[in-house]
Amino acid sequence: MSSKDYELRGTSQNKSEDSSSSFLLGALIGGLVGAAAAIFLAPKTGRDLRSTLNNQAGTLKEKTVQLINKTKTPVEVEEDNYIPIGGTPKATNGEAVDEQSIRDKLEEAKKAFEEEEYKVTH
């Protein structure tokens, strides 16, 4: 690469940095102007506006606490309703279930489903 190529590359990087910083500055100034306009053009007085905002913030805080408490509630899992990962599934009587018995049960369920579907469609 020639020295002109290096100089051109450097200028394009500088232009990119300048444009991104001026965009951020413009966004910041625009945000401040917008906030000032919202305050001055608000239909309520400052005291009423602050009161409304405090009430809404309190309501939001209460709802957030309720959601947090809901998510912290432990979920009870019945051992009969799942197959452990990496383990051997157990039947309701505690004996190990082999792969063939699972396949047989699936086949029975499939046949029962097909019979019911036939009854509904015909």
Polypeptide structure, described:
- The structure is a single chain.
- This protein is 72% helix and 0% strand.
- It is mainly alpha-helical.
- The longest helix has 38 residues, at 3-40.
- The relative contact order is 0.03.
Give a topology summary.
Layout: H1 3-40, H2 46-72, H3 99-121
Which tags fit this structure?
single chain; 122 residues; mainly alpha; 3 helices; 72% helix
Span of the ends, CA to CA: 79 Å
Strand content: under 5%
Q: What's the story with the biggest beta sheet?
A: none
Total beta strands: 0
What is the helix tally? 3
Relative helix content: over 70%
Short recap of the structure:
By secondary structure, this protein is mainly α. The mean pLDDT is 76.
